[in-house]
Amino acid sequence: MIEPNGKIGLSEQRALLREAGKTKGNLPRLLEKKGISYDSLRYEAYCELPPACLAPIETLDSIEKCSDGIPAVSFFSGAGGFDVGFDYAGFDNIISIEFNEVFCNTLRANRPNQIVIGPPQYSGDISKREELAAILMANGVTENFPGVFHGGPPCQSFSIAANQRFSKEDDNFKRKGFDDEEKGTLIFDYIWFIRRFRPVAFLIENVAGILECDTDGRVQRALDSLAEDGYTITAPQVLNAANYGVPQNRLRWIVAGTRNRKQIVFPKPADTVTPCGSVFLRPTDNVENHITREHTAESIGRYMKLPYGGRDKLGRVDRLDPRLPSKTVIAGGTKGGGRSHLHPFAPRTLSVRECARLQTFPDSYIFTGSNARQFTQVGNAVPPLLAYKLAMAIKDVFLP
Questions:
Q1: pTM of the full predicted structure?
Q2: Catalytic positions, please?
Q3: Of residues 126 and 184, which shows the higher confidence score?
């Protein structure tokens, strides 16, 4: 029997799981036979929720796009989180640079007319400085660039979560920081491009862990070199996206600068954080990237016992608490394998689209590639709503 809230009763659910458990893998078939889905299943524990955590929150879909036409070049573009935010703020993202072909495919799928410097035509490798500089110049990027450079160098070398996917015995368990020859020094390559082309403004983003890895002050010395080149630079700061309207706890390190002697003033964080509950009240009919995983009866049996915020230790997944921001959306490994948290109201993991909503991507933005690689793209991204608010602050230095 389906209850008014769309859920089946607990006794019926337990009977369904017992029946499915007799033959592994047949829960999806049983659900289909009864005309229900995983969203019709329920947790054992719910509690009354304050209306505030279910009220609609700010989204890019509700913001009117600006069209100021200020040129921008995106470095380490990923799936386009910064690109989307700067686009809504009125910047014209003329070029995106990305070395991962799957990510490049997503960028091209969403903006067919934008130049993407990356596979298969280019390497998209920031460390090949002169080669990439020549490509940029061939595509209209000149010295004293009249716009902004923005980007977040790969953060795995400085991220606790990225490295503790491995066992303690694995060489990758500890953060390598700047000792990571492949990714640890890309921030300095990026700064080389800022000094080479001298954009009016720049933005650098990374994980908070970069501060702990900068034990010898290399980052600060690189920023000092930009100040010597005439840039007015903000003090590096760590902010939580949840204080800026994003329904997710996500700490980011940011620093920005401008060469027109104006000071970039980033918006102050709100006193409160943004709960994630309303994200899961939005309809999912006819949206892209909303494929949910077909869990076994055994998994559902474990998940359904979790309280809000509880963790399934076997699957290492957490039931989200709708009263709070989501835990950080996880990217998974660089070769795929991204995973999600558990839906707060149905005992299943989230879809890519639900994760993208926690990241504040508009529903119109699509992700290409396999489902696992889509999770990776979403989890690696800067929340577009946060990017938008940072971009609006940077735009002020371009105004008279």
A1: 0.91
A2: 155
A3: 126
